[in-house]
């Protein structure tokens, strides 16, 4: 008798010592139907539902390859190292044969044995065996780790590498463009990336990330083995990750670096000189522009971009035949220089084209002025290339905005209701009994100048009542730092950690170890941080997280919506804010015995017309605007937690 989804799910839940959750069962059965009927499904599964098993069980039983795409490395690691192995162990009691699974990342996430053994090109394109100083020590450690991984048959991926910086990792890895290719690399048989691709070809479940999925399905570049069914976890992030994957940059320093790398590999070195001249021309042109969105490409800017495009094309054509190595062996320095020049050509050409579907803007980075280009709207591409060709299940704890799946569905290109089904399986938590949503209605509307004395005083009073135990989510780094400084002075007995004081994993560890601690930070804390228990009984959100008015991409999207006759503010800015608010508020209740308060210091949530839309996107916490009630609740929670801790 063939086991059912429920049979395998029950075995898996029992194996990890869990209990059956109605939402998890409903999700598994809905995912199975979506696979069978080849109909798209959106599943909102609240924290504690066990949504990973909810889609992994039907994926295991599907009989055909299923790609599982996540937004974050944390979830990818959880699936590959914990959830899937546990499920497969449990499934062996009900299945005759348990399917194989694999993880597949972008090539730059794996160590490159050619670069490890031959060295990395410097800015002049010369292979350097080991850099000097601290960087050199890290590179040596990474090379030893990579050789050991090759000897032992390990994955060689970055997650398992010793501690390192981004700069040192670049010394032992390559991008897809820089790769010599399996047919030309002398170490292809041992190659970590190639072995991962081969492993994925034999797998029924392939775990990857949103960017890889976008490149494979939308750009048409074969990154994944053939598949017809995909589960997208953390689906509220999909549009942003697809946009990020399609965003490109161009700056004079990068052009000059490519020219230096190319010079020694060209038949006619003057082509590199021309590319350097193009870098100077672009640098001069950018100094006459204001940072921000570029609605109309001026003639000087267009000419400068075309100059970069044309000189990069000539430079690319000037690369001679392979040289410098044994017959038939590729030259890695030449390959890297060639790929850099070709990428410059493509980016400059895209920017000069000035497509109505792209937004172009000028930013001011640490290394100087930089042009960036991104697609304004990815919904059409997702509709045509992903939803039009695959069966897609999207899941997240946050897929309904304003109480409806429609906003998220439309943003992803699912415009016709008959194309998809929405299912909210709820959460096992009783939010109304476990937590309070407090809106500080008495405070003034937040201004553009950041936190004022009223907000800082409110933060201090709430933190004091909670005895620390506070996660502060701020709309800007400056706001987080100012609040941290203020609370440190006002409450010297409370330890306040602030994003930037150390690496985020270290800060999260210190926050969890000492309950009487606060952790203040910005966007990376709003999502994906899991801090259950007495560590976090108060979540403070300083303001509704609308995008900045001068955000080039968001403002371009608002204008496009309005041009099509829609409400740009509601469909873009309010949509963005609702997603972040829901994610931020979701940091509070992470398990059945959690208790606490989410405090939003922005009165617009209850006074503005759009406030009801935002509020409907939040967990069903008990709601109040009375500060005395909240302060009393926090004090009682602190007393109870202190008693448990023996303080």
TrEMBL record:
Source taxon at top rank: Bacteria
GO process annotations (BP): nucleobase-containing compound metabolic process
Record domain Helicase ATP-binding: where: 10-304
Region Disordered: start-end pairs: 149-169
Phylogenetic classification of the source organism: Bacteria, Bacillati, Actinomycetota, Actinomycetes, Propionibacteriales
MF annotations from Gene Ontology: 5'-3' DNA helicase activity; ATP binding; hydrolase activity, acting on acid anhydrides, in phosphorus-containing anhydrides; nucleic acid binding
Family matches, as PROSITE patterns: HELICASE_ATP_BIND_2 (PS51193)
Family of the protein in this entry: Belongs to the helicase family. DinG subfamily.
Gene3D superfamilies membership: P-loop containing nucleotide triphosphate hydrolases
Protein name (record): ATP-dependent helicase DinG
Cofactor(s) the protein requires to work: [4Fe-4S] cluster
UniProt keywords, alphabetically: ATP-binding, Helicase, Hydrolase, Nucleotide-binding
Reaction(s) catalysed by this chain's protein: ATP + H2O = ADP + phosphate + H(+)
Pfam families in the cross-refs: DEAD, Helicase_C_2
Entry EC no(s): 5.6.2.3
InterPro entries xrefs: ATP-dep_Helicase_C, DEAD/DEAH_box_helicase_dom, DinG/Rad3-like, Helic_SF1/SF2_ATP-bd_DinG/Rad3, Helicase_ATP-bd, P-loop_NTPase
